[in-house]
Amino acid sequence: MGLRSEEVGAGGWRAAAVLGAVAVAAAAVGLRLAAASGASLWLDEFHTLHHARAESFGAFLASLRADNHPPLSFVLVRLSAAVSDAPLGLRLPSLLTGLAGIALAALAARRLPGRAAHLAAPAALAFSSLHLAVSAEARMYALLAFVVLGLLGALARRLDGEDGAVAVAVWCALGLHAHYHFLHVLAVLVPATVVLCAAVPAYRAAARPLAGALVAAVVLALPWYVWGFRAQLAHDLPPGGSDVGVRKLAEGIVHLLYYNVSLSGVLRPAYLAAGAVTLLLVAASAVRLVAIGRREGKPALGVLLAVSALVLPAWAALVAALAPRAGFHWTYLAASAGPFALLLGAEAAATGPLAGLRRGATWVVLALALALAVLNARAADREDYRGGVAFVLDHAGAEDALLTADWQPALFPHGAAWDYYAPRLAPADAPLPARFAPEDGFAAPEALFELDPPRVFVLARSLPPELPLFRALRARYANEEAHQFGESIFVVVFTDA
């Protein structure tokens, strides 16, 4: 007896879905491996390495108290660096949590209506250039995106009566130790959950267990927040970013999918238009999912996704505008990348007005996202410290001098890039130039002028040209020649000839 046409159709869909999932997974892994293994370490990654290389765990925790971040991501890099301190080894925690976040997005997508959404949602996160960038650097933002997705899934399952509250407590505790932006996550998700429990009778039984889970997470996080966070609040180390406004917020939300649009060249206008279309699709998806959830008596997932993707960035921007110490940067918004991707992917199975147009537009913006992600994975180094060090090694001799200086907080040593890359790139027993670091106020060290080398190489990041060290070198040497490596790395050569 032959198969019915609907059985053939279902079998064909399952085969296509499996092939699509394999393709998305392969793209996610390939893009992130290419980006993580190819690019030079940049300044903030050397800051991570500075903490991870502390002599003892006590010294490690003490060094973090002078910084602006909680400890979890640095603990993971410390463990990874003990196995390999090669760039890929340092970036391995972000690489793994980035890929794990895509897996969580795939699991959450199974709760979305429409089979096409089950593939499109994880694809949106896999193709997100911002998520790609944070998954390929030794920082904490891929971890932040991962724990937010984990918390969303746990909250939705608990509210819908499918799971206990222990998972919520675990994800909250991890988030509180991952990045302080997670405090914003709780600031929007806790009220949203309270409203859901009050408005939906089926959810009221979850209120007490969820409150207990939050209390348990706070208790677990309390030692660090009493010992570490209080000390961090007492110092004046500036946040990662303080430029905030409506335009900055809008750009940050667009960057959740399209990051580094400048790489697209002549296609930049197309990406700007696609960014606007993407925001419309995500907003339409949020409205549709909340409406579907209300009809079915289970609005938790739609509400939580909408709040995390759209309200969270606006809340973080508002707090940063009122309290600049809170900071605001596009990478912080990685917390919203997963919910944003799930909402966008849900439109691949859109219903209602202009459903066909919305479904088609979703696949178009995903195709553009994949193209931009490929460009990002292949892009030249963001800050090519490796190229700058290689240039000095190729051109400087033992009779020359090297001055390493980075525009950065004073708690970090100058020349971390030289210390890292020079032993890896220099031939064995090759003579190296005498190395110096600037004195307080970025003054040129007296010992440099006492040596009076024929040439001075300055390996610098983002230094203003009128700093005292540059003025002193210009007064001593007749010629100055600058070479740029990536966005903000320079080697400036001072000579008499």
Describe the structure.
The protein has 497 residues and is an alpha/beta fold. The chain folds into two domains: 5-378, no CATH class; 385-495. It has helices spanning 5-38, 43-52, 57-65, 72-83, 87-109, 115-127, 129-135, 141-159, 166-176, 181-199, 207-234, 246-254, 268-296, 300-322, 337-346, 355-378, 385-395, 416-425, 446-451, 468-476; strands at 401-406, 434-436, 455-461, 479-485, 489-495. α18 (416-425) links the parallel β1 (401-406) and β2.
Shape: globular
Note the quaternary state here: single chain
**Topology, number of strands:** 5
Order of helices and strands: HHHHHHHHHHHHHHHHHEHEHEHEE
Q: Mean pLDDT, as a whole number?
A: 94
User: Largest sheet, if any?
Assistant: 5 strands, mixed
List segments where confidence is low: pLDDT < 50 over at least 5 consecutive residues.
Answer: none
Task: Tell me the strand order in the biggest sheet.
Answer: 2-1-3-5-4
The N- and C-terminal alpha carbons lie at a distance of 91 Å
Computed structural class? alpha/beta
Describe the structure concisely.
With 497 residues, the protein is of the alpha/beta class. The chain is built from 20 helices and five strands.
Topology:
Elements: H1 5-38, H2 43-52, H3 57-65, H4 72-83, H5 87-109, H6 115-127, H7 129-135, H8 141-159, H9 166-176, H10 181-199, H11 207-234, H12 246-254, H13 268-296, H14 300-322, H15 337-346, H16 355-378, H17 385-395, E1 401-406, H18 416-425, E2 434-436, H19 446-451, E3 455-461, H20 468-476, E4 479-485, E5 489-495
Parallel strand pairs: 1-2, 1-3
Antiparallel strand pairs: 3-5, 4-5
